[in-house]
Amino acid sequence: MAEMPHRPTILAVQGGDREEIQHLLIAAAERLKAAGVRVLGVVEDMAPGVSHHDIMLLDLATGDTHRLHQDLGPGAAGCSLDPEGLAAACAGVETAIAARSAEGGAAADTVVILSKFGRQEAEGRGLTSAFYAAVAAEFSVLTSVSPSVSGEWGDFVGDMARVVPAHLSEVEAWWAGVPELVAE
Fold this sequence. Notes:
Elements: E1 10-14, H1 18-34, E2 38-45, E3 56-59, E4 65-67, H2 83-103, E5 110-117, H3 119-122, H4 128-136, E6 140-145, H5 150-157, E7 161-165, H6 168-182
Helix pairs in contact: 2-4
């Protein structure tokens, strides 16, 4: 039997626009679920024609949605991110991770998909605590990284992650190698 890893495998995708990457994460979640993998986490639910302010974070374990942006009113120029919605989504992911960990989930049968590591996470907010919870539980993590925070991402994960082009084949190849990390 191979030695248990001391950290999870983390894969980050880059190289597409926001909508393409979120659709890729959703497609990856669907394929992994169909293969019997337990999928936790949140993705941006970006239905065609939905305005920026109507984007929701979709909890992949429960189907719950949380508002990602708030309406600041006409002419507002400030950041429209909804901190309450983001905090609720993050808390839901942390709860799912704790429950799955208590059930005995492992890196080989559980993946946590987090919509992105962006400016909020680079500043220690947003989904940061969900990333920490997934690492602490030794679950595999799939995410995307905003190019503008690539340096902060490297500082955040060190050698725990790989960054690959945003293609489903890259995600599938990564997942196919995950079981080899935990058992032979």
